[in-house]
Request: fold
Amino acid sequence: MVRKLKTSRQPEILDAALAIADERGLEALSMRAVAERVGVTPMALYGYFRNKDELLDGLVGRLLGELVPDDPGQTWQERLGAIAWAIRRLARAHPSVFPLLLLRTSVTPDGVKLVDLAYQALLDAGVPEADVPRIERLVSTFVLGFALSEVSGRFSDASRDVRRRRGTDMPAHQRLAGHLTPDDWDAEFADDLADLMRIIRPV
Amino acid sequence: MVRKLKTSRQPEILDAALAIADERGLEALSMRAVAERVGVTPMALYGYFRNKDELLDGLVGRLLGELVPDDPGQTWQERLGAIAWAIRRLARAHPSVFPLLLLRTSVTPDGVKLVDLAYQALLDAGVPEADVPRIERLVSTFVLGFALSEVSGRFSDASRDVRRRRGTDMPAHQRLAGHLTPDDWDAEFADDLADLMRIIRPV
DNA sequence: TTCCGTAGTCTACGGCGTAGACTGCTCTAC
DNA sequence: GTAGAGCAGTCTACGCCGTAGACTACGGAA
Reply:
């Protein structure tokens, strides 16, 4: 017997969890903290989620739900771009929860829906059927990775730190000194997407 | 006063930590577990690392150290490819620790060295100086993301699960039914790299 | 001989996820 | 009208966790 879960207060609980993570970071997201915010004892949560992992999966589902666009009928570039920018926006809105999207496996209906929209856009772009899933993985991997890198500091912290140590053996860094950090990450993301579109359909 | 750390047994401690993570997962990597493996009380570790976070940073440094290649004098494609494949190999060798590379900010000398080699390869490829750092970020983001996706199950689990639910509203999935999962991830990675090389220098 | 630095120990605190047993309430069926 | 089922939530407790703080034992140097 698998013990049926209640669903009534799941959204409320996920909202509380998301709020805690947004305000105090993923580390602070404990069952006890969520329970307190909901106004309930920790053990009450286990009527709605089998354990903490399932609560986190629920959180991933919730984020993906925010994401799926509903305006069809544009060009494939616009539709693909819309998904990409939405993902990046999501990362910036919920930086501490965002890594879960890449780290957890959970497959939600909204996630599948999103992939399906991407597939359709690629088909419309004229990508051969046999290549569509690969190209989707290529692009989505980049987009998720980019958003994660921004949010986790991989981009900015690295360059900042490097500038402090110049003079050791990193000849190329020295040569590129003026160009290491972009002034505009939005523009970089846009340029990257444009480059990827050229993979999808060479101009 | 910042409390100077001992370095003598750091490598030994990091080895123990890596072994635990490889054998029992990142969750099992606790100060207590590492201490036990080293044959010491938990508090003894704090002479070598200020806290658990610093130990994890040390682990990232250790991994990057395994990575930096030492065979120069090939074409820029070969050098870039060597780095990419080495990263992917690292992910497969240490799947549970690998996510730390993307999640933690720690900037190590070996990491910088690696970026410098990539910069040099891009310069040799004829990429304009102003574009080199962006292209490096594009490619490294993809490579890290791909390796992470493989290792965290984002790729395989997703496709497996989708096949079970066919018939709902995912038209593109249905049309692509035969192509959803590649039989050979090595080949997919190679194809992706080839596509990215075409961004770097159009053929 | 005294002193100091090094390496490590012991104890304890507050927090964590969650198993197991329990209470009180509401609704149905007789 | 009352017995019983089932739902919602509580209480207690266990074994983990990271780490602060105070301590011991020892091997040189002065």
